[in-house]
Design brief:
One of its GO terms (molecular function) is protein dimerization activity. It comes from Embleya hyalina. Pfam families: Dimerisation (PF08100), Methyltransf_2 (PF00891). InterPro entries: COMT-like, COMT_C, COMT_dimerisation, SAM-dependent_MTases_sf, WH-like_DNA-bd_sf, WH_DNA-bd_sf. The structure is a single chain. The protein is α/β, with parallel strands linked by helices. The chain has three domains: 224 residues, 2,3-Dihydroxybiphenyl 1,2-Dioxygenase, domain 1; 96 residues, Winged helix-like DNA-binding domain superfamily/Winged helix DNA-binding domain (Arc Repressor Mutant, subunit A); 177 residues, Rossmann fold, CATH 3.40.50. It contains 25 helices and 18 strands. Strands 2-3-4-1-5-8-7-6 form an eight-stranded mixed sheet, with helices on both faces. A seven-stranded mixed sheet has the order 14-13-12-15-16-18-17, with helices on both faces. The radius of gyration is 28 Å and the shape is globular. The two termini are 31 Å apart.
């Protein structure tokens, strides 16, 4: 149980200086920070009942940095003069960017018209030994004339809405920050609460606010993750709806849109035209024809076998969407985005563009039927379920396999997300041609692998294994995870992009077969694209509709995976993010009930 915050003024703080309206809040925050360990402070900033695995993971990468409070001195100098009498030692005063912008939004003012300073304070050991090495940050807001500021000040002093508890990432990398971010927002009770980059300090911050009553009688469940450096990819992932300018002190509200809604809707309903344009570019081989250089429309039309005027108009559209770059001499060149359509590069999206603008695109003619009836759109349009169709159409099956090869971008990041003991045995269930398993064996030289697949797929994998240095550490086992027994006795089982192909009943067949085969101390690593609700990326939502239209499966939220795993005999332990909104979800078999 957490110790109750002290109600006594810590030794060394002069009560005479506690008459300031913010002094009581400062004293209470000092008591809270000094009266709890870092893990307890973290728990108090997260939702009630958060699993130990979440606390452990944040603690593994972060250390407690400071607690923060928004205060309202008449003059910054007055605050600095009083801090020693409150037992605080000023270590630094710097301008704020992130908090300033939040306050400006709440006041409905331009950021430049609001002045906020970060006053960093150390809690000395003299008289308050429990505070040794701990810090406070006071965000000092200069007065702004007007009733809105008065309301904001009263609201903040009553509710401490900007108060947070900050944990610093010790060795920040984009992957680590994305990992932490996605772990936190995977909790249904956690909401993203802004963030940004402060160039004055080269400091990157993310805020999270948790649903639930405060852990104490005054501090909100609000957490800051901060790191040195700028991480725009992480910030884009974190980007939450901007708060609308409105009444000071009111909670942030979703801004409808700064764009014309009609224009935005037109962008959405014409998106299929862009899909087709990219698919045609892939089928014409435009990216391969361009290579690393630039070419004129006429030259490119001759190389691709296209009509120059029509091709020129297609190129212009592709340039408008950042696939190509139009140069001053009328030539076109690939952008970094467009280079993904080159067929010879790792992670090529050329086959995917062909498939998604062709066979799978036509399936969407049956989407309304699927939504109305629950029947399979692919079957409605093409006359067979997708897996049966590919068995009967080898050319389309080959295109599908080539399209799915873009997942190697994700596969490259999987081995680092696995905790494998030396000499471990890894079984890849439904592992395709072995691309993922070979990466795991390459990064874990003492591990052994087993690829479990159907017969015709195993033959394709045999060719890939033959040229691999890990061939002598990998066995091929023919089987069907719906009807046959799975290899037993391994340390780790991989299930990559399998569960999203199927509805819950089929998934439960696979999971229960795994639960029977796995030792009690083995782990199951599931590679999927979980849906993050309440402002998460739309990419998993799009793939969810794709699975509904072209297969019988679905993408799932973390909560849905947790429930599915529990019904299948597993307990979800951890989630680690991968590129492109993918993730590794780690689970273990549930102990048999005595």
């Amino acid at each position: 149980m957490n110790p109750a915050p002290s109600t006594a003024v810590p030794t060394g703080i002069d009560p005479e200086y506690l008459s300031d309206p913010d002094a009581d809040r400062i004293r209470a925050l000092i008591d809270h920070v000094c009266g709890h360990g870092a893990a307890d402070i973290l728990r108090a900033a997260l939702p009630p009942g958060v699993p130990d695995a979440v606390v452990d993971m944040v603690s593994r990468h972060c250390r407690f940095d400071h607690a923060a409070l928004l205060v309202f001195p008449e003059r910054l100098g007055d605050l600095l003069d009083r801090l020693p009498h409150w037992g605080l030692r000023t270590t630094e005063v710097v301008p704020s960017t992130v908090v300033r912008d939040r306050i400006a939004e709440r006041l409905g003012l331009r950021a430049e018209s609001v002045e906020v300073h970060i006053v960093r304070c150390a809690l000395p050991g003299d008289g308050v030994a429990a505070c040794e090495g701990r810090n406070l940050e006071l965000f000092a807001v200069a007065p702004v004339p007007g009733a809105d500021f008065a309301r904001l000040r009263a609201e903040e002093r009553a509710r401490n809405g900007e108060t947070h508890f900050a944990f610093r990432v010790v060795e920040p990398t984009p992957i680590t920050l994305l990992d932490l971010h996605d772990l936190l927002v995977s909790r249904d009770e956690v909401r993203r609460d802004g963030g940004g980059f402060n160039p004055h300090e080269d400091t990157f911050v993310l805020y999270f606010r948790s649903i639930g009553e405060p852990a104490s009688d005054r501090w909100p469940r609000r957490l800051e993750i901060l790191a040195t450096g700028s991480y725009p990819e992480v910030l884009r992932r974190h980007a939450a709806p901007r708060p609308a300018a409105g009444r000071a002190g009111s909670p942030p509200r979703e801004d409808s849109s700064r764009e014309d809604p009609t224009r935005e809707m037109l962008h959405l309903v014409t998106g299929a035209w862009v899909t087709q344009a990219i698919g045609v570019a892939a089928r014409l081989g435009l990216a391969d024809h361009l290579g690393d250089g630039s070419r004129s429309v006429a030259d490119l039309a001759e190389a691709a076998g296209a009509e120059p005027d029509r091709l020129g108009r297609l190129l212009r559209l592709l340039a408008g969407h950042g696939v190509l770059r139009a140069e001053a001499d009328g030539h076109y060149r690939l952008t970094e985005r467009g280079a993904l359509l080159r067929t010879e590069r790792d992670g090529s999206l050329a086959a995917l563009a062909d498939l998604y603008s062709g066979l799978f695109f036509t399936s969407y003619l049956g989407l309304e039927h699927t939504v109305r009836t629950g029947e399979d759109a692919f079957t409605r349009v093409h006359g067979r379920e997708s897996f049966e169709y590919f068995a009967e159409h080898p050319d389309d099956a080959r295109l599908f396999r080539e399209a799915m090869a873009f997942g190697t971008v994700v596969f490259d990041a999987v081995p680092a997300a696995l905790d494998l003991p030396p000499g471990a045995t890894v079984v890849d269930v439904g592992g395709g041609d072995g691309e993922l398993l070979l990466r795991v064996l390459r990064d874990h030289p003492s591990a052994r692998g087993v690829l479990f697949e159907q017969g015709h797929v195993v033959e394709a994998a045999r060719e890939l294994l033959a040229v691999s240095a890990a061939a002598d550490r990998c066995d091929l086992v023919v089987g069907d995870f719906f009807t046959g027994a799975l290899p037993d006795g391994a340390d780790l089982y991989l299930l990559a992009r399998i569960l999203h192909d199927w509805a819950d009943p089929e998934c439960l067949v696979v999971l229960r077969a795994l639960a029977r085969a796995m030792p009690a101390d083995a782990r199951l690593a599931i590679v999927e694209r979980p849906i993050v609700e309440a402002g998460g990326s739309v990419l998993p939502l799009r793939f969810d509709i794709q699975m509904m239209t072209n297969a019988r499966g679905r993408e799932r939220t973390v909560a849905e995976y947790r429930a599915l795993l529990a019904e299948g005999g597993f307990e979800l332990l951890d989630l680690r993010p991968l590129p492109l909104d993918m993730a590794v979800l780690t689970a273990r078999p549930r102990p048999a009930q005595g």
